[in-house]
Amino acid sequence: MEEKSQKTGDLWSGLALAALGVYIVVEAQHWDYLGPDGPGAGFFPLWYGIAMIVLSLALVVSSVKRARSTADTAMDWRRVMRALLVWAALVVCVAMLKLLGFVLSYALFTFMVVAVMYQRPLKSAAVIAVTSAAGFHLIFPTALGVTLPVGVFGF
Amino acid sequence: MDIITGLWNGFAVALAPINLWWCFVGVFLGTIVGIMPGLGPPATIAMLLPLTFQMAPASAMIMLSGIYYGAKYGGSTTSILLNVPGESASVVTCLDGYQMARKGRAGAALGIAAIASFIAGTVGVLGLMLVAPPLAKFALSFSSPEYFALMVLGLAMVVLLAGRSMIKALLAMLVGLWIATMGTDLFSSTSRFTFGNMEMLDGIDFVVVAIGIFALGEVFCNMETRESAQVLPVPKGLRNLLPTMQDLKDCRFAFINGSVVGFITGVLPGAGSTIASFISYGIEKAVSKRRELFGTGVIEGVAAPEGANNSETGGALVPLLTLGIPGSGTTAILLAALVLWGFKPGPLLIQEHPDLFWGLVASMYIGNVMLLVLNLPLVPVFAQLLRLPVHILYPLIFGISIVGVYTVSSSLFDLSMLMAFGLLGYLMRKLDYPAAPMVLGLVLGDAMERALRQSLMMSQGDLTILVARPISAVMLVIAVLVLLVPVFGSLNRLRLQAIESED
């Protein structure tokens, strides 16, 4: 079963935040807690790090307690995967900016979103991708003089 | 400078052609944002913030504020016509507004929404104008301990109403504080949480976090399903947008109720316009002689909440402009904008930059008139915006986000951080962690740490300085009581009811 619940989300996010709290407290130990002029760089992080550990453990405990007493609310993993796929495509788009430049990377990303995620005909996806990328190029670098990443093709 | 002189000079600033133009752009964009479900004012303001760096600060503030209050006008349109609230503050307008539309009175409902918004929005600005200067004068006596206590209280109030779980809201706020402390500590030049990366020495740009959390996170959530734009039939009855004299008579109390409740709720950090609209609707229903008809298309059931959510913006700007304390995600972005433009939001802002403050106040009067003129005749045109396919809209939002972040620093590293915060924003929505406390923690974190350290320097490390001074002691006690609300069953039920109204 691929079903996970909100409570499982609370449990794992609580554990992750507890780990972050521990990291903050450990890092804060490397900096001055109190210096000759008053509190040092470690003072504030130490206290909010401790607060983070306490609160995240409280979240973990409450999610475990609720897991025993109430029914699960299922999370729709197909929806989550769809959103994560868009995110991954955007990451690839950003990673390609240095090589392909903004116009080409953005056009490819838009084409993917329209054609794959929204299953529009390839022709209309291509038209939307080209016109929106060209629109960005005309508005920002050409009209407003804003610099955008330029790739090996010079745009 | 007294209020009359200030306002006179403010109109001189706001009526400059360039500022009139940006005011129009702001309220126009705000109306569009308000109409379109799934794209809120914080996301829009965050995306457009980098593009304002080339503008004069007064013009930029006028435009961004125009988006903020303009969205409140736009939100009512889809609530009334399609029973789809464009933003959360217009949810309650659906109750009677849509019923009026079904009865063929869509025009009267839209007309009264615009008129109530105009009246209450203007009263809200009047309140801002009258309350802000004396409050700023009072706050001049504040020192570091009072500022620290004030920020703790502001964060506590936001955490109180940010989500069902106060633990999650507090954790989100702490993550915001953590991000705020990344980079070089200005007291000791110590590098903190930089992971050995040179590009982290200046910390993480607020724009990157705000766009990632608000804009990208929101769009990823919206893209979970492949729904195309819903082309819903727009009901008839738009021809006559002017309510009758009887309608206006029925709404007399609703105008006052919405204006007063909205302003007071706006001044309180964390409450927000959704809660303001629900409270004013509740009051209107409670005092009405025909309360049994509420929900079936009663015109004052539209006027009261629409008035309240517009008056709230004037109230929300009071703590922002006088104390430098934002009460919501949107005002947190406006605060960050002021800081990025080189201002120091706080009690001296009005004295040191009267053009900015009074120019903004005057522009809000003008903006409200623009919105009234825009919204009455152009409602059917704006309603057509809902037909814009999301497969065109969402890639455009991604493109504007990338361009916005790249404009700030021309850094590909910042773009990679944007991706990380976009994912974080999405996960926070999925796991029910509220975004507002995190953004507020980020915006206030630096000032809060500075105030705490300065306080302890003043007292040579003695923490009792925070409670030894009466104003800070009172504020800290209130903050503690606010954080203890979940412990008290009846108070917590009220809190949860208020949060459910937001949802």
Which two chains form the greatest contact, residue counts included?
A-B, 62 and 59 residues
Q: How many discrete structural domains of chain A?
A: 2
For the biggest sheet of chain B, the summary is: 2 strands, antiparallel
N-C termini distance of chain A: 48 Å
- Our estimate of the beta-strand percent of chain A is under 5%
Q: Bin the strand percentage of chain B.
A: under 5%
Q: State the order of secondary-structure elements of chain B, H for helix, E for strand.
A: HHHHHHHHEEHHHHHHHHHHHHHH
Helical coverage of chain B, percent range = over 70%
Structural class of chain A: mainly alpha
Count of beta strands of chain A? 2
Low-confidence stretches of chain A: none
Number of helices of chain B: 22
Average pLDDT of chain A: 89
* Tally of strands of chain B: 2
Order of helices and strands of chain A: HEEHHHH
Low-confidence segments of chain B: none
Oligomeric description of these chains: heterodimer
Radius of gyration of chain B: 22 Å
Main sheet: strand order of chain B: 1-2
Task: Explain the overall architecture.
The complex is a heterodimer of chains A (155) and B (503). Chain A is mainly alpha-helical. Chain A contains 5 helices and 2 strands. A two-stranded antiparallel sheet of chain A has the order 1-2. Chain A is flat, with a radius of gyration of 24 Å. The model of chain A has no long low-confidence stretch (mean pLDDT 89). By secondary structure, chain B is mainly alpha-helical. Chain B has one domain. Chain B is 72% helix and 1% strand. A two-stranded antiparallel sheet of chain B has the order 1-2. Chain B starts with a helix and ends with a helix.
